[in-house]
Amino acid sequence: MSKSADEPLRLLSPPASHTLMFAGVLIAAVATAGVDLSQTKSTFASDLEFLRKHSEVLVLGSAPGAQVVVAPAYQGRVMTSTTGGRDAPGFGWIGRAAIESGTRQPHMNVFGGEDRFWLGPEGGQYALYFQPGAAFDLEHWQVPEAFDWGAWDVASRSTTAVRLRKRMTLTNYSGTKLEMDVDRTIRLLSNADAAQRLGESPGAVQMVAFESSNTVANAGRSAWQRQSGLVSVWILGQFNPSPSTTIAIPFEPGPESTRGSIVNDAYFGKVPANRLVVGNAAIFFKGDGQYRSKIGLSPSRARSVAGSYDPSTHRLTLVQYTRTADAREYVNSMWEIQREPYKGDAINSYNDGPPAPGQPPLGPFYELETSSPALALAPGERYTHVHRTFHLVGPEADLDRIARATLNVSIADLAGAFR
């Protein structure tokens, strides 16, 4: 028996009491090499040249068309992509400092990339990022080596797809051993495929679209059970910000008495009103990489898409994921022993920025992320989580048509949300 769906968007993160410590971890991981604040102006060609200096990478597609760069050495991440053309930008944020260092960083290797594989939960009694009995603090926080360091095996490749594999054995905070096989296929989508997924023709828009299909199989002899700890697939995308980038996340309407709050904005302290607006159909959130903040939506509010728009470059980015409508249990990653370990958010966005006055940002970047529901898999059972990314650049009229069809908002709404 197997389960398959492409699931909601979700960022796992510590509670407010630990956020400054969490930021300290990430800053420490890049402090030795410094932070490159000029990356938003780099081109795809320069990004590709940089990556090739440090590792073997696989390029899906070919110039002058759409291309996607996959790095098996960096856990099979999609590092960046482009619509094609001379001096075209690269869309993924790349952690140049960590890559240039060539050495494993404490706590987390900040390699970046616009599609990377992680697993949740981060904290709690079923945490994967803390050893059994360890304190939930910065000193003891560690991304598991299986998806933080070392190359993944390339099982097969073609001009438009690459398949990677990794066998993992993890032990959660409660001492439960989890053996799993991860099978990850990254595929460049044709314009016809992308149009079918979006339900709209790209028109005069230049586009690059790709998907990662992430299959997790229980390779052990025991079923994964709620009382001993479930996991979730967690896909994270880091993108280059700009002063005018606005993130939009559509939500399911309805009274809070039945659906709960529309948005959770308390992860790193309440988000100021000039950075978060709840509209009639979507939430607007600044993606400028200048103010560290995060939002999340519960399964009862989340829809199957999120996106962002940068009016300065006429770039619309969409992250799409199919999800099971009745899925309600998502892992909780708070850095504490939890009352409700399966009441996590289903969709999130993070905006990077200085964690404290005088301290540098990690990137800067902004994130759109998805994760599966909590996975209760029997031995041999598998679950597939598909995450799609679209970058569209072109005339506002075409972008407006696509934004309305996918995000339920107009380009004018996105461009003017914080004016």
Could you write a compact summary of the structure shown?
This protein has 7 helices and 19 strands.
| Alpha-beta content class | alpha+beta
> What is the count of DSSP helices, taking H or I runs of 4+ residues?
7
User: Largest beta sheet, briefly?
Assistant: 11 strands, mixed
Task: Describe the oligomeric state of these chains in a short phrase.
Answer: single chain
CATH class: Mainly Beta
Tally of structural domains: 1
Predict the CATH topology. Beta-galactosidase, Chain A, domain 5
Distance between the termini: 51 Å
The global form is: globular
Describe this structure in words.
- By secondary structure, the chain is α+β, with helices and mostly antiparallel strands.
- It has a single domain (2-242, 324-386), classed as Beta-galactosidase, Chain A, domain 5 (Distorted Sandwich).
- It is built from seven helices and 19 strands.
- Strands 1, 6, 7, 8, 9, 11, 12, 13, 15, 16 and 19 form an eleven-stranded mixed beta sheet that branches. A five-stranded antiparallel beta sheet has the order 5-10-18-17-14, with no helix packed on it. A three-stranded antiparallel beta sheet has the order 2-3-4, covered by helices on one side.
- The longest helix has 13 residues, at 19-31.
- The relative contact order is 0.21.
